Amino acid sequence: MTRFSVVTTGPAATANEAIASADGEFVALVEPSDHLDRRALVRIDDALRADPAIDVLYTDEDVADGDGTAVETFHKPDWSPERLRSQDYCGGLTVVRRSLLEQVGGLRDGFDSAQHHDVVLRVTEGARRIHHVPEVLYHRRRPTPQRGDGHRRAVAEHVARVGIAADVEPLGNGLVRVRRRRASPPPGVSVVIPTAGTVRPVWGVDRVLVLQTIRSLLDRTVFPDIEVVVVVDPVTPEDTRRALAALDVVVIDGVGPFNFSARCNQGVAASTGEVVALLNDDVLVEQPDWLDVMVGFLAETDVGVVGARLLFADGTLQHGGVLLNEQPLHIFHGFAGDDPGPFGLLQVDREVSVVTGACFVTPRHVWDELGGLPDDFAVAFNDLDYCLRARATGRRVIWTPHATLYHFESQTRLPYAEQHEIDLLYDRWTPELQHDPYGNPGFEPRQATWLPRDRPTLGTVARRAARSVHHRFNGG
Q: Is the overall model pTM greater than 0.90, yes or no?
């Protein structure tokens, strides 16, 4: 059996002395008042033996109040570096190859309650492989509200080390925001908007949706280099065409029957920006820096697509990313727009499998490499196909809550998928629909509100066989 040394993350000097004197190949970092599940070391050993390249490993956990009166289960995603920059989601039980831990200098004092966050950031920067065991193998007491500046400083040092030009801001309770700085000079952005010139009521007033979208985009967005390309349907009314011609936009005629993918591809082909932004014609811009926020992620070459938080007209959440859980589902769809989500999920930048084409940005070279949107998905799932093809190249798809727009969804066209699109979706992407790395196999199927398959009662939790964590434990 692989030998483990279990070390509590107390004062750094004490913890480092324990690491130095340990003889385990791996060190399990834990909090002194928490408990390992009885299966933990066996499950970890199984994973490490199956993949010798693993340098860092973490598990799911549950969190109880001090008196055990409430329990929440943290079903974590697989490796999500953007989320780790915003939140120490790896949490309580983190196993690190001892040689790597020593190489980065072990634990460091001076980070308040963020000592664990700091060390996980440093070891994951150099790890060959980071592995998630999606089982609840750690039982912890709910931490007291986190104070101090430790998380912000740990992340600020991290982004400096990895070369991300950003300012790091605290969000409270251990969460931070990495605000990317605008590049100098900034890339040109081409915003492509397909439209039929539909008129619908918005907040009680009939509006030409595309005109509202473009005026809000041009009037409120502070990004300095924007080109707007509008692809109009043959059915677009003449008065709408004339109004578009009076705006500072490029207008081109869509060819043939409506096909969202083909319209977008045609608009991108007529554009010139280094960044492609797709925008539905029923979106409203109110946040001036929304495009700065989204484009900022693209400075990292492994980011392929970035999506925004979209709200319905009543302020509830329309889009928090898409979870693939036997079918594609908008995460926490219809929840309050300011709902933080479980363990801060909806407050932090994070990787997702898919973002909606109603509002996303992507580098032009990625668009060209992937061949744009797939014409065979004329109405539905074209954004899903694009995002999954981007991920298949090793690129990340990011959702950010820090770029928020209103989306009057389905006011232009009914949310409808042809049967052949549904069949094609499952023919092409069944394995991905069955396993979303940013979900968890512990979730109930066909839902995107993080409901666990089994929701243990307090009695079940109390009866679990768990062992106290001592200063050091050597397995095997």
A: yes
